[in-house]
């Protein structure tokens, strides 16, 4: 499997760093199988940090070996379990099991308002899930331990021509 990580710098050696904000799947190194999503995230990171340039690091990942050696939580769809997990992570109230790898849909900027409305009580669980079903959500794979990160092999970065023609 090929994975991408968007940032404002090249990340040859992924590592776990303290987060300054609550993320979908908690603390970890975030990747995606989708180039467009990674490019978009790299551009957001660059705009937010105002240094470096948008860079997408590319990794080879042996999912069979990693998924059998590491604890894995997998969400196939944005369902109730996913909604509860992401909401708890974003609110920093998650107290369940810890996983070394977490795979599932990204609650990206397209669904941020929906999550805010759900968190405030303005939308029910059912209304929230119905709104999420009509959105195209990309997937993410989060590495939450050094053991899991060891399965990533840096292979380079997307060049600017790939950015332009995606």
End-to-end Cα distance, whole Å, is 19 Å
Mean pLDDT: 86
Strand content: 15-25%
Structural class: alpha+beta
> What coarse outline follows from CA principal-axis ratios?
globular
- Number of strand elements: 7
Number of helices: 7
Largest sheet: 4 strands, mixed
Order of helices and strands: EEHEHEHEHHEHEH
Round the Cα radius of gyration to an integer and report it.
16 Å
With strands numbered from the N-terminus, the spatial order across the biggest sheet is 2-6-5-4
Q: Which runs of at least 5 residues are low in confidence (pLDDT < 50)?
A: none
Which key features would you list for this structure?
166 residues, alpha+beta, four-stranded mixed beta sheet, three-stranded antiparallel beta sheet, 7 helices, 7 strands, 37% helix, globular
Give a quick summary of the entry.
The protein has 166 residues and is α+β, with helices and mostly antiparallel strands. It is built from 7 helices and 7 strands; from the N terminus they run E-E-H-E-H-E-H-E-H-H-E-H-E-H.
Provide structural commentary:
The protein is of the alpha+beta class and about 170 residues long. The chain is about 35% helix and about 20% strand. It has seven helices and seven strands. It has helices at about 35-50, 65-70, 80-90, 110-120, 125-135, 145-150, 160-165; strands at about 1-5, 30, 55-60, 70-75, 100-105, 140-145, 150-155. The strands form two sheets. A four-stranded mixed beta sheet has the order 2-6-5-4. It has a three-stranded antiparallel beta sheet with strand order 1-3-7. Strand 4, helix 3 and strand 5 form a beta-alpha-beta unit. Helix 4 (about 110-120) runs antiparallel to helix 5 (about 125-135). The two termini are about 20 Å apart.
């Amino acid at each position: 499997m090929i994975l991408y990580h968007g940032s404002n710098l090249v990340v040859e050696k992924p590592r776990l760093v303290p987060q300054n904000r609550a993320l979908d799947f908690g603390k970890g190194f975030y990747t995606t199988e989708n180039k467009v999503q990674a490019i978009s995230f790299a551009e957001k990171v660059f705009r937010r940090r105002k240094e470096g340039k948008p860079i997408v690091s590319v990794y080879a990942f042996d999912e069979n070996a990693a998924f059998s050696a590491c604890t894995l939580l997998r969400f196939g769809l944005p369902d109730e379990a996913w909604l509860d997990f992401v909401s708890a992570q974003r609110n920093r109230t998650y107290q369940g099991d810890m996983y070394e790898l977490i795979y599932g849909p990204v609650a990206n900027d397209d669904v941020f308002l929906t999550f805010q409305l759900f968190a405030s009580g303005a939308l029910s669980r059912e209304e929230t899930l119905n709104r999420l079903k009509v959105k195209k959500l990309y997937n993410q794979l989060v590495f939450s331990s050094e053991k899991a990160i060891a399965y990533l092999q840096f292979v380079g970065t997307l060049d600017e021509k790939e950015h332009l023609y995606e």
